Amino acid sequence: MKPDTAVPRFSGPSLEPINPKLLLPPPRLWFITVTLLAALLIDLFPLSDALMPWRPEFVALTLLYWCTWAPRFVGISIGFLLGLVMDVANGSALGQHAFAYTLLAFGADYFRRRVVSFPMWQQMTFVAVLLELCAIVVFLMRMMSGGASPGAPYFIVPPMTALLWPLMLVLLQRQQQRAALSER
Amino acid sequence: MIPGEPPPYLYRGPSILARFIFFALLSLALLFVDTRYQHLEKLRAGIATALYPLQQLARWPRTAAQNAGAYFADKIRLSEENDAMRLQLLDQGRLIQEAQTAQRENAQLKTLLQLKEQTPRNTLAVEILYDTRDPFVQKITVDKGLLQNVKEGSVVLDAHGVVGQVTQVTLFTSEVTLLIEKNHTTPVQIERTGMRSVLYGMGVGVPMELRFISPATDVRVGDRLVTSGLGSVYPAGLAVATVTAIDNDTEHSFAHITATPVAGVISSRYLLVVEALAPPPILTLPSEQPRNKPAEKKKPEGKSAGNRSAP
User: Fold this and answer.
1) Could you list the residue range(s) of the whole structural domain that residue A112 is in?
2) ipTM of the complex
3) How many domains does chain A have?
4) Residue of A42, A54, A80 best to disrupt the B interface, most CBs of B under 10 A
5) What are the tens digits of pLDDT across the range B210-240?
6) Which of residues 108-147 of A touch B (CB under 8 A)?
7) How many structural domains are present in chain B?
8) What CATH number does the domain containing B125 carry?
9) Residues B27, A147: C-beta atoms closer than 8 Å
């Protein structure tokens, strides 16, 4: 190895030490579990028939968040298990959500290093595209196995869910920062 | 060590791509097995039972709101509702008496003709917990399950007619597949003529189809379709649907007949589960009065080869 390649030239933001308050510690396992359970609880909340198809996918969003910010704890296997639970909760064919969430977790994990440095609107676009992609894949699979047509809301909900991404960042990261500060 | 690669002590299991492929294939296999066979019911029931407390918790705010709403419902509306119900009860009491007389006569006639007596079926009132959220299927979940002895295949009714069939039973809840579920079939007959056929569900928002009826058959718009009782899953004579359109295209060998279900699935909150008779109906001896003895149902099946009563 040549000495000048061993130390790559850095062209990013300044290397000045940043405010340690803004650095997030790794999230606690109990916090991840509680947020995932809470998302599941929100998703299970009964709604009227008119509103039901328009329900945002909170579990998918929370999974996406943790796959991006805590890839050590939440990854593809957790996505798969959550998908199984959602399959049973929604009365879908077993494996339908499991496949979607596996794909989701993979996409989130694969792109996470890029996504965290994106500006907010790009992050939201990324989330919307990923969720929509999963929806389309599941749609194609179900159509091939002889399901009924799900209707337009099915394809509109994923980008709608992506609109909640900033809320997710605020809720979960604030909590993490607060926890970090209180420990100091 | 390859430059640029993480050192081995940072190794954390198989690569992300390998894990993705493994779990993707696993879920595809699950999907294949679940849509084609019935082998995964145990797994599903297990997860559903574990999920039950969480579902109850999620349901709690609405239940509380409903209870509070019922408590504070205004008195005038309640008394009006009460009066309407009393009138209805009076009317239905008369109908029941008539029906009982007819039933008695029917039983006597059947005894004379040595026909099979219809066994009474166990019924159970259930409450709708929620619609299943999956947009690809038309199912609802109700609040009674294995503990209340709900059986798979049971028929589910509301005040107007057949709603669907119990397709999945877990410990505390059951899943009811609605009649309109795509490719769900119901053996029916046209009430007016007695013509038998099969009614197919076509998915939500699409009218059901009455198939295998030749264009020459006497069918009219507005004809009521009732269960034929064939296959012994559904009791005979339950209202199912009303014919809405008939397209007698002579190019095809069958008429294209559409129908809408009579049961209002969305409007009713309580449903009735009527136990399905899994074994074929049993011929009872003419001297017996089996209506008072439901225990007689478990008789040896050898006698069922006899003639069945026409529905």
Assistant:
1) 58-176
2) 0.80
3) 1
4) A80
5) 888 888 788 888 889 998 878 767 888 888 8
6) 109-110, 141-142, 145-147
7) 1
8) 2.40.10.340
9) no
